[in-house]
Amino acid sequence: MMYSFAMLLCLGAFYAFAMAKTAHYKSVFGTRPNQVQTQRFNRSGWIIILLSFIVNLSQGVGYGSLMFCGQMALSVLLLAVCLTYQPNWMRSLLYLLPLSGLIVVVSGLVF
Questions:
Q1: pLDDT tens digit string along 78-103?
Q2: Rounded-to-integer distance, Cα 67 and Cα 88, Å
Q3: Which DSSP string corresponds to 11-62?
Q4: Exposed e or buried b for every residue in 8-43, given b needs 16+ CB within 10 A?
């Protein structure tokens, strides 16, 4: 359960990094981001990727760091494919990522 939560965190971090770039933001939302939005996306991306790294390391140092590298690669691949072929899907991902992360955490606590 924790690795799936870490994967969602990693996906959210790279989503934030992508939205910090003007070209990606414009292809998804149709407008240019202002400076404050860009800084917020960039800061939140770094915070979330650090949380993902901590979650992975809490499961085991050796295997956790390996899982973190794999999760980063898979997250970047998924976002690159989504941005290339269906950038409109990224708009809904803004709401689905936190919701799915909450579902994974609650189901991990219940079961």
A1: 999 999 999 988 999 989 999 999 99
A2: 29
A3: HHHHHHHHHTSHHHHHHHHSS---HHHHHHHHHHHHHHHHHHHHHHHHT-HH
A4: bbbbbbbbbbbbbeeebbeebbeeebeeeebeebee
Residue-level pLDDT at 25: 95
d(CA 28, CA 17): 13
With CA atoms as reference, report the closest residue to 76 among 52, 59, 56.
Answer: 52
Residue whose token pair is 């070209």: 23
CA distance 68 to 7: 8
Q: Which segments of the chain have a pLDDT < 70?
A: none
Check residue 97 and give left, alpha or beta (phi > 0: left; psi -120 to 50: alpha).
alpha
Pairwise CA distance, residues 104 & 52, whole Å? 14
